[in-house]
Every structure is written in C-alpha cells, then in structure tokens.
Amino acid sequence: MNSVMSVAKYVVASIASLFATLPYASAQSCAMCYQNAAASGTAGRSALQHGILILSIPAIGIFGGILLLLYSRRHVSGRNGGLQRGPSETALRQCIVPGHKTMLRP
Fold first, then answer.
1. Which structural domain, as residue segments, surrounds residue 72?
2. Is the pTM of this model over 0.70?
3. Cα–Cα distances in angstroms (integers) from residue 48 to residues 1, 4, 52, 54, 90, in the given order
4. Would you say residue 106 lies in a domain?
5. What is the mean pLDDT of residues 76-100?
6. In angstroms, rounded to a whole number, what is the distance separating the alpha carbons of residues 18 and 13?
7. Number of structural domains in the chain
8. Please, what is the end-to-end C-alpha distance for the chain in angstroms?
C-alpha cells in the first residue's frame, strides 16, 4: 500500500509540474509557423491541435515506460543488474577473478 501511495505522489507531482510549465511551452513558436497556422482557418488550427496531441502520445508512452522500468528495477543491485549470466560469462569470470579454483588450461 505504501508503494502505491508513493507512486501516486510522484504521478500527481509530475502532472502538477506539467500544468505549471504549460503556458511557457505554448509560447514557443516561430513567426512563420504562427502565420501559417493563423492563415489556415479554424479547420486547419483544429487539425494542428489534434496532430500535436496525437504526436505527443508515443513520446509520453515511451517516457512513461522508461520510468516504469526504472521504478520496477529500483531495488536491483549489483553489476549485472539481476540478469542471468550465460555459461561463457560464468566461465570467463572464473578464469579472471582471483580466488577461484578454475584456471585457464593450455
């Protein structure tokens, strides 16, 4: 239950920061883009607004996926990140790491 609450706090904080920076983000545009959008009429403006929303969905999804992956692996420690070692990596590590009984044979 605690982990759900902490995730909810981060989500709320992220959404609040997004809405806090929204006026500054909407003010960023070049003069030529503004003139073309203004000359396109209401149908063109509506299409641009929908296009911006549709193009933001994959970016937000990728960003959220990376955050979810990082959050789910937050307790994994060690050099290999909790991944399974292959037989060749195990054999190589036994040959290189001192203190192991297995040594390279000619």
1. 2-79
2. no
3. 42, 37, 6, 10, 55
4. no
5. 61
6. 9
7. 1
8. 57
